[in-house]
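Table S2 (continued). Query chain:
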Amino acid sequence: MSLAPWLQETWRSLAERLANGRLPQALLLSGAAGLGKRGLAAALAAAALCENRRADGFACARCRTCLLLAAGTHPDRMQLSFEMRDDGKTPRTEIVIEQIRKLTEQLSLSSQFGGMQVVIIDPADRMNPSAANALLKTLEEPSGSTLMLLVCDQPSRLPATIRSRCQRIEIQPPAHEQALAWLREQDISSSDAELALLAMLGNPGRALEALGDGSLKLRGECSRDLLALRSRHGTALGIAEAWAADRPAERLWHAAVLVRDDMVQLLRGQNSTLGLTGTHEIPKLAGWFAAANRSRELLATQVRGELVVLDLLHTWQTPRSS
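Corresponding output:
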């Protein structure tokens, strides 16, 4: 197994602590999506269960436990994520208490191989309050042979009581040159890599995804729509309907990033690409940036997406009077 270059230092530290028996029983792996924390968690889980770790700390991929891990049948490796709803057709959007109770029952049994029991909860920040409270009891009275790996993008959503019982490992975006070099290793041209990194706030994993899933095209559409609204060449209702019908949360994310980038340009004395007139608009634009992020979170609720987007675009169209 290989990890991205910006994860190597973190891996060496974790592998050394695992080898010396000094690894905490609960780790919270956090950071933006696309930086590799899930791969890091999987590598650490495999290493913890491996019977013959390599010199670099990674699992050997050949021993009995590694073969079971590869087959997905290792009894001491547990993972919690979204289960299917009772209808069996759609996945839940949160981790529920029944899953934690089942996990607690499994952990009450001895390890089947006499080693560690490893649990990955991902995304941990999507546990509902009841599930989080139930997990807290397990964290308060951990078994000596249990390793809990909580993985999430937004650790602030976790209760403080959960966070305080885990050692946090936060994955930071790499330096621009390192991110650019990594993308070039994936056969991405320098020009495309630069554009994708700009669009994805320097996140190389998301930049690579954006180059393959149409996200950059979506960003361009959002830029044109915001400029059209600002110059009165489009209607908030028409654009809101289009955004709500096609990847609305991603469009709001792009819109927020575009506004942020434009504010930076204005502060540097550069021309706006979204039709802004000067630095005097920056305070209200900062408010719109925050509102766009709040609206994106609202889309995960039962609120009608079209109404959420429409309200936001109305404030963009008339920022001076908002």
